[in-house]
Amino acid sequence: MLSKQAQNSLTGWESHTLRIIKVSFKTKKEGISMNVIQCYAPTNDYNEDVKDQLYDRLQSIVEKCPTKDLIILMEDLNAEVGTDNTGYEDIMGLRERNKNGERFANLCAFNKLVIGGTIFSHKRIHKITWTSPDHYTQNQIDHICVNKKFRRTMEDVRTKKGADIASDHLLVAKMKLKLKKHWTMGRTTSQKFNMAFLRDTDKLNKFKIALSNRFQAFHDLLNGEGTTMESNWKQIKEAITSTCHEILGHKEHHYMEWITVDTLDKIQERRNKKAAINTSRTRAEKAKAQAEYTEVNKQVKRSIRTGKRK
């Protein structure tokens, strides 16, 4: 999902297997693009050949990015990157390292990518990106990296544990680099009409009357001599769009009309359960709160599906 600003700056994207996607954005720095490579790596006990293939593909993607561009490598890499940063001082801080972490650290060292989550000082709770189902084992296995050339554009990396998105991937990086609108030839900004107003009987009747009057005004012209299919189409289009503009108006925001009050209530309940998880003082309290959150999250998804069908 992209914000409107990011959407306007998008210059292209590429899908590389089911585990890797690369997205490019235009920035306000002249001639410099931002290439975001998002990856979901296999777990530590996965088949070695599969992991080798994934890291080979990652290497190939990074190599193809222009050296002048900003590269951001991010997401769930299932890699613990180490307590010993000997030989990796330029790209990482101190942490525990597993086999996936060795692969990941080597990839970053070879391509001069700085591992953001290891170089900023935070409390342990703001570094943890994964907690086991028993709530005992906790690791830092999600990472956000930038090429060393743009190290100063990264201001912070930490988890936002209060985010209510039903996911444990809560790592966020704060960057200084600003995005710029990317316009392509023939691209226009389209506005949508408030079609939801047609559900209102009074609005619907006004719309019918106004449209009927417009059609009546040029009825004879449509059937006159010298008219073409193209000219008739333009007249009909003008009648419909002008009526929509007058009666319905344009949408000021993107409304998800299928969201019901019941769904919004359940989303608020889920938000409260998330807060309960973060304020739990014992492991038992946290396990109970997590179970309740999971159940409410299922109810939210069920309510959304029901709303969309209506």
Q: Which structural class is indicated by helix and strand composition?
A: alpha+beta
- From N to C, what is the helix and strand string? HEEEHEEEHEEEEEEHHHHH
Distance between the termini: 24 Å
Helix content: 25-40%
- Architecture (CATH level 2) name of the largest domain: 4-Layer Sandwich
CATH level 1 class label of the largest domain: Alpha Beta
**Percent of residues in beta strands:** 15-25%
InterPro entries: DEGP_PDZ, Endo/exonu/phosph_ase_sf, Swc5/CFDP1/2
Secondary structure layout:
Layout (H helix, E strand, L loop, with lengths): L3 H6 E7 L3 E7 L6 E7 L8 H17 L5 E7 L4 E2 L13 E2 L1 H13 L1 E3 L14 E2 L6 E2 L2 E6 L6 E6 L11 E5 L25 H17 L1 H5 L5 H19 L13 H19 L3 H27 L1
Parallel strand pairs: 3-4
Antiparallel strand pairs: 1-2, 2-3, 4-10, 5-6, 7-10, 8-9, 11-12
Pfam family, one: PDZ_3
Description:
- This protein is of the alpha+beta class and 310 residues long.
- The chain has 3 domains: 172 residues, Endonuclease/exonuclease/phosphatase (Deoxyribonuclease I, Chain A), CATH 3.60.10.10; 53 residues, no CATH class; 49 residues.
- The chain contains 8 helices and 12 strands.
- The strands form 4 sheets. A 6-stranded mixed beta sheet has the order 1-2-3-4-10-7.
- Helix 2 runs parallel beside helix 3 and helix 4 runs antiparallel to helix 6.
- The longest helix is centred in the C-terminal third of the chain and has 27 residues.
- It starts with a helix and ends with a helix.
- The mean pLDDT is 81.
- InterPro entries: DEGP_PDZ, Endo/exonu/phosph_ase_sf, Swc5/CFDP1/2.
